[in-house]
């Protein structure tokens, strides 16, 4: 297997970076009225403008050539047809099949996938409707009003992000609460507001062995028993989502209340499976289906759109250009929508757990940077906090600006103000303002010459900072589905270009193993084992501070 750096396209891009990497975008825009048309693309209700990047037609063509030489399209087809594209775990990766309601005949490990997906969706629908309609009754005969979703990582971040994002579609029939942290603070706070008689717990864990989730699930079960003086029957208050049915049954959850997922659904790609039940319970099943529909539309787009208009592929290539060739190893996610406030956290997992790796498919260390540092915040709040660094800092951070043309909360003046900032910030990152222009501005404001010279350098914005703008018609379930799927496929395409295994997560294991060894050592009478002197002394100090 040849290293990506020896590909003709990689070498052409390295030369491009030498020759054109520092060309100011202002000069690329000057006199080129076609730039926006050429460097923009659309899928359904999601529009992408990628013209504010340091690319010209030649660089873009070399990026497309890189995708071709890396066989991204062939790998995409393999993934979508159920081939083993998660080699270190020996698994197919078929989250796309979860949202394909056309029931294409796809097999994973010899088993037809569509019937499994349809059957589980039908069970989810019945469960959702029975809880939401008040048919499902708790131990006193009261209808369910609150659902507590207990799960962590991929079994939490997706449903939490989506139910927050689509709050405006929620009819308040069922209130959702999430518990992910094993810190007792979170579950205590959640339970303190609830009435056991009308509360249902949904334990979401693919493996049903995750320590944090199991600890929280046991605490929830004990709380239910305490609150009901031992009268509550677990089957009226517990349901589970897992691929480990026997473990869920061992915990005491009846088989009828266990919803399946499969090995070919990765945790961080699982919100489309029964892991998405919090979404359906909170918003209603029809909205969950719209989410799937939007994601499927993006899947089809990724599979069929020409490369130069293919949103996920373009985002992947722009990311590769910025990080591997221009040395920008971070990516800001900046939603201009309050309800998308969990999107940066969600994408942190999706991207960093997938592509935060340094070993290629052959087990060799790759000689280039891989997944960038993903971070972000609701844009308008970020403006009053960290945008200083985006505009004038020495670390260059490409940004994705995400917003909608129509507001779901159209109060007079609000959306215009929000979106004026949305457009103004990416423009400022791109155009900047040079010393002469600053001098002129300050002089025009009546500042004396000496002050102008002293202050002006501080107000220079060099600009030329890359960004993508994602403008949706509106934040709807369908558009959100498409947006998430777009990022999933971007991450996939980058993993292929970097030749890394995007679907495993060995990097999260070592710390867990060490924590398991340390936990018994925290008991008052237990000995502290052989650790480095930092860890040993910290453990000793921790123990000495217990009452
Ligand atoms: C996601 C990861 C990880 C996983 C959690 C929860 O891709 O695998 O975040 O989702 O560790 O695992 P369980 O669902 O098995 O509890």
Q: What ranges have pLDDT less than 50 throughout 5 or more consecutive residues? A: none
Number of strands: 15
Helical proportion? 40-55%
Q: Tally the helices.
A: 23
Our measurement of the CA-to-CA distance between the termini, rounded to an integer number of angstroms, reads 59 Å
Mean pLDDT: 97
Radius of gyration: 26 Å
Distinct small molecules bound, one entry per kind: glucose-6-phosphate
Largest sheet: 6 strands, mixed
Q: Which class of secondary structure composition applies to the elements? A: alpha/beta
State the shape. Answer: globular
Order of strands across the main sheet? 1-2-15-14-12-13
Measured by DSSP, the beta-strand proportion falls in: 5-15%
Descriptive overview:
- The model has no long low-confidence stretch (mean pLDDT 97).
- This protein has 23 helices and 15 strands.
- With 547 residues, it is α/β, with parallel strands linked by helices.
- The N and C termini lie far apart (59 Å).
- Bound molecules: glucose-6-phosphate.
- The site of glucose-6-phosphate has 14 residues, from loops.
